[in-house]
């Protein structure tokens, strides 16, 4: 995932919050979040305002009682969304040919980004032209040319003078819907390159100027974003290098401070490692809160209905093997038990839980066959299953006595896990199915 290090730390903090009792860990969790964002290079003033707003919102929601952990998580989520962009932003292609000028630092991945952006629009039916204007970096045009062949997009430009390259290509612009111009990388303090980019802008007359900035730039991102914005009136931002160890907080808050919106993020080196930036989905993933929505969407796709009484018994840890059978059958359609648990931030992440889920994932199909071989009474009253019944069930399911015993042991452990889990998380999911616990 993009911003993996920062995300992992924030997810752990949210899990600690959701698995806590009372409100004793709230301030501890907020401190952890603040530390994670500080080390993730979030601008100091922006961070101070963010944490102040979060604490104020918690206080305002407190009233006379405790604030539900889910509400606190929601407050953290909503305030982070405001920082990273709040609303979806797209480049509005409102005329043709629509000219996009990409600018940015040297080494920001701008040339690859030009090809990714071209591929994005090509897939959506636009006729795209790549315009190579980076005459500063050796072999920049050749790199863009190779990328254009991969995505089957036309390319023009090159040579030693970007202004001449624009003028030479202008006659062909009418044959395309979108022109994506890749300019030379520059530092905003480099006066010679600043003069060049102004000349490119005045000659090309772009409809949109997009800044390409690496997510690992850190605190220096603010200087660069502000400088480019003042020089060229930046319309949009594309973040690159968001995978791996990139902190990313500096680039995100720099965009927030400047007012320019992040539109796309590059998530890897391949052409298709490129996606639209959706602030709400991004923060959900960052905090590990996207799971409930993902599970709901998948369940709806598979037309899965929830047995209300069975669901209530599972939530309370009072279920029998009939309930387990129903949950396993649904789980196979949605995904593995382990994957489902990963999407549920309230599920304990202890070694015992992971071991239990690993075994369930390995044997879930066999467990269903075993339960198919049980009588209704045995499914409703697992305590009645003695050694002779275990032997009969094993033979009927084509498994072994050991695996039948393992299912029964897993069943007991599952009841313990559910009693340890944050039931509000599961109750919240069930409410989305119209079931009140």
Textual characterization of the structure:
- The chain is built from 20 helices and 8 strands.
- The protein is an alpha/beta fold.
- It has 3 domains: 4-84, SRP54, nucleotide-binding domain (Four Helix Bundle (Hemerythrin (Met), subunit A)), CATH 1.20.120; 98-278, 3-Layer(aba) Sandwich (Rossmann fold), CATH 3.40.50; 291-432, Signal recognition particle, SRP54 subunit, M-domain (434 Repressor (Amino-terminal Domain)).
- β6, α10 (249-258) and β7 form a beta-alpha-beta unit.
- α7 packs parallel to α8 and α9 runs parallel beside α10.
- The two termini are 34 Å apart.
Briefly characterize the structure:
The chain is of the alpha/beta class.
Offer a few descriptive terms.
437 residues, alpha/beta, Four Helix Bundle (Hemerythrin (Met), subunit A), 434 Repressor (Amino-terminal Domain), 8-stranded mixed sheet, disordered C terminus, AAA+_ATPase, GTP-binding
**What is the percentage of strand-forming residues?**
5-15%
- The radius of gyration over CA amounts to 27 Å
Q: CATH first level of the largest domain: which class?
A: Alpha Beta
In total, the number of domains comes to 3
Q: So how many helices?
A: 20
Count of DSSP strands: 8
Order of helices and strands: HHHHEHEHEHEHEHEHEEHHHHHHHHHH
Largest sheet: 8 strands, mixed
- Identify the overall geometry: elongated
Please name the CATH architecture of the largest domain. 3-Layer(aba) Sandwich
Helix content: 55-70%
CATH topology of the largest domain: Rossmann fold
Biggest sheet: strands side by side, in what order?
3-2-4-1-5-6-7-8
Distance between the termini: 34 Å
| CATH superfamily label of the largest domain | P-loop containing nucleotide triphosphate hydrolases
Average pLDDT, all residues:
78
Q: Are there runs of 5+ residues with pLDDT below 50, and where?
A: 342-350, 432-437
Structural class based on helices, strands and sheet pairing: alpha/beta
Pfam family, one: SRP54_N
Protein name: signal-recognition-particle GTPase
Domain Signal recognition particle SRP54 helical bundle: 2-84
InterPro entries: AAA+_ATPase, P-loop_NTPase, Signal_recog_part_SRP54_M_sf, Signal_recog_particl_SRP54_hlx, Signal_recog_particle_SRP54_M, SRP/SRP_N, SRP54, SRP54_GTPase_dom
